Amino acid sequence: MVCIEKIYSVSALVGNGACNAKCDFCAGEYLRPEARESELYNKNFEAAIKLSARYGGWSLSLTSSGEPTCDPDALTKALEIYQKCEQQGAYFPNVNLFTNGILFGDSIFCNKYLDTWKELGLNNIAVSVHAVDEKEQAAIYGVESYPALEKIVDNIEKHGLGVRATLLLRKNGVDDSKTYEAAVKGLIDKRIDNITSWPVGNPDGTRTEDTPSRLGLLGIKMWLHRNAKMCHGHAWGGGVFDYKGNILRITDYVTKHNPRKDFVRQLVVFQDGTVAYSWIKEGALCMK
Asked: Are 183 and 129 contacting, i.e. CB atoms less than 8 angstroms apart?
């Protein structure tokens, strides 16, 4: 029998599932029927935070089955729950909001919410990037226009929050070492120096028609090992690299829970109140 030694993080879906984009390959759409107000959700979200903190957790990620900023009150509520836990000793040094970034181009939206969210413990906003060029980004998100990344960075940093990019690896987009290098350099030029990447795929970890080729992904990993210095590896695969003073991280979108391992990559809090040891619920249930 294996005992859990570490629960690295918590990922929680928040909000009503509304979205301001029309992506062709939405990974969260299948979870939207679960997006409703639930006291069980609040209770289990709090329990997941405390459990992960007890086992050395260091990161809380807030995401959604849609776009979390489309339901800002739910984000505020989630951060209030985190602040309560923090005051009771369950502290995470990294509290991240994952977003498509569209509303962060609006300074009025940022002025209304970001100071409050920072006071409640948020410290990083991770913007999902499919293409550094805003016209390409708009086409992928199915919107008429996408804000300038420099404007997003200005609006967020103005409120004392960090900006990260989630550079998504997608076939015919960023899908090999050449396009990855160009995207990384483009983001750094736009003052985003903390970049995480993973290949798009199905929520169960299987490949889709948009997943880059295995050869292309191997080329990206080889580029990192040739051009950057590894800071540390992840127990579940991938790792963090120092590239000329910038942070590059590569990982997988999902990690299937292995009950024979002594660690859990993340506790996932679903909107129906279920907490699982991974994004794949089957065989990974923790709380219901």
From this structure: yes
Q: How does DSSP classify residue 171? A: T
Q: Which domains does the chain have, with CATH numbers?
A: 1-99+262-288 (no CATH), 100-200+206-251 (3.20.20.70)
Question: Which amino acid belongs to residue 248?
Answer: L
Assess contact for 201 and 211: CB atoms under 8 A: yes
3-state helix, strand, coil in the chain (%, to 5): 35, 20, 45
Element (H, E) at 248: strand 246-250
pLDDT at 206 over 60: yes
Distance CA 130, CA 110 (A): 22
Q: What angle do CA 276, 282, 168 make, to 5 degrees?
A: 70
Which of 126, 104, 124, 102 lies closest to 113 in space, CA to CA?
A: 104
Q: How confident is the model at residue 35 (pLDDT cuts 50, 70, 90)?
A: low
pLDDT of residue 219: 97
| Alpha-carbon span 244 to 64, nearest angstrom | 33
Structure tokens that stand for 146 in this block: 């996408």
Name the pTM for this structure. 0.94
d(CA 177, CA 215): 10
Q: What's the mean pLDDT in 7-22? A: 94
Nearest partner of 169 among 220, 93, 244, judged by Cα:
220
Determine whether 118 is exposed, middle or buried from the number of CB atoms within 10 Å of its CB (0-12, 13-18, 19+). Answer: middle
